Amino acid sequence: MLSRVDSHLLQATFIYQSGQLVKHGMLTLPALPQSYYVNGDVQTHCAVIQEPSHTLGSCEDAVFWDHLDADDNVAARFVIAGCDPNRKAWNTVMGPLRDPEPRGYLWLVDTLDNGLQRIELAGFPEGHDFHPLGMEVTPSRNGAPSIFYVVNHARGETTIEQFVISPDAPTKAHWQRTLSSRWFVSPNSLALTNETSFYVSNDHLMTRRLPFPLAPVLPMTESIAGLPLSWLAHVTVNPDGTITHKLAALGVPFANGVAISPDGTTLALSSTSLGQIYFYDRNTTTNELKYREAASVPFFTDNLMFDEDGALIATGHPHFPSLIAVAANKTDARAPSWSVSLTPLSKDTHFADNAQRKLYDLRAPLSASTIVPASKGWELETLFQSDGSVFGTSTTALRDLRTGALYMVGLYEEGMMVCRP
User: For the purposes of burial, counting CB atoms within 10 Å of the CB of 146, is it exposed (0-12), middle (13-18) or buried (19 or more)?
Assistant: First the structure.
């Protein structure tokens, strides 16, 4: 166990690195509203899709699955969500590791009518666990099948499962292979570079899989102290199912969500411990990354996605102790949600205006400007926030620019929230 002196040193280190975020996200409960949606009243514009058997719950990640026509225009769009209602008994990131037996689920949501269907894991090996975390799917072009990768926190090790899913049978994901590697220490989030390669974040060097008493002390120490021990890798899947692994970014505290801009030249990576997003210039030929800048957000960042216009949607946890309380099944515990958009500013605006502004995000009931300063290259705006009473433990939000709809899932929340302007 940590001594009192060690604990105080960790807290001091964390406060030094994260400043205001620690004050508002660790030491005090932020004054969030019951709910706020940027494009209208939550009561009339938002609804939570639920499923009678309660298997659309504890969904850590969600992605758009686009069906493109012959001209590469979006003919149809679906949301695929990875859910694990057993997460409070099996969570290799936060703990505990008590019961890995019940499998998780994949769900397909039609963005036209919120129609909900469970996706069957066709051909998935008997006796193989399925606990989905990060995932990504290639678009289907002119009816062709898509390649679908899912991080799987199975009992023995964390793997990445490869599936094929097709528009002519959208509720069947045909299992192809399990990708396993000694480099997969703690895979979390994925960003595809093509059908056979992707970036993958590893959120911890010291994981909950360590033997007692090393776990949970060392993983929690790594998280709370903001130790820069996690990393981002680029993985190529070879024709024989082996992988080629290459380190892409090192020294990140709690590397979590990862996303690539629509033009492919920018990669965003969230540092959960610091409440920051690291931006890298990406070489689209070699997949090499060069660090460019960081932006602060008013919560402990989880997953990221770029919309079609190049705005980054970042979602996370405004109050970490509340999240821990929900994970531990504390009576009446609830954990808040917060999602923002970060729109890139022109170079002329970077330094002259945005960096010197102390007030921004003024439409939100709790402005991000009361917690973190404005970032030089990005305009931040709150899309959704809640004290957890309407929707809690937010991990991922997707914004569909065709309709303006916002889709959100939560780590320990039941259902998927959909807000439409």
Answer: buried
Neighbours of 290 (CB within 10 A): 10
Tell me how long the chain is.
Answer: 421
pLDDT of residue 313: 98
In a domain, 5, yes or no: no
Question: Is 18 within the bounds of a domain?
Answer: no
Using 50, 70 and 90 to split pLDDT, how confident is the model at 412? very high
Q: How many domains does the chain have?
A: 1
Number of Cβ within a 10 Å radius of residue 378: 23
pLDDT value, residue 2 = 41
How many CA atoms lie less than 13 Å away from 411 in the CB half-sphere? 32
Residues β-bridged to residue 151? 160
Residues in Cβ contact with 6 at an 8 Å cutoff, skipping those fewer than 6 apart: none
- In tens, the pLDDT along 319-330 reads 999 999 999 999
In a domain, 221, yes or no: yes
Q: Which domain holds residue 402?
A: 38-419
- At 132, the pLDDT band (50, 70, 90 cuts) reads very high
In a domain, 106, yes or no: yes
How far apart are the C-alpha atoms of 158 and 180, rounded to whole Å?
8
How would DSSP label each residue in 262-310?
TTSSEEEEEETTTTEEEEEEE-TTT--EEEEEEEE-SSEEEEEEE-TTS
Q: What is the domain-level CATH number for residue 223?
A: 2.120.10.30
Q: d(Cα 44, Cα 49) in Å, to the nearest integer?
A: 14
Residue 385 pairs with which residues in a beta bridge? Answer: 36, 338
> 216, 206 in Cβ contact below 8 A?
no
Q: 114: buried, middle or exposed (CB in 10 Å: 19+, 13-18, 0-12)?
A: middle
CA distances from 314 to 12, 170, 323, 384, 398 (A): 27, 28, 17, 11, 9
At residue 5, what is the residue type? V
Give the Cα-Cα-Cα angle 172, 81, 118 (nearest 5 degrees): 40
**pLDDT tens digits, 216-267:** 999 999 998 889 999 999 999 999 999 999 999 999 999 999 999 999 999 9
Secondary structure (3-state) at 129: coil
> How confident is the model over 179-229, as pLDDT tens digits?
999 999 999 999 999 999 999 999 999 999 999 999 999 999 999 888 999
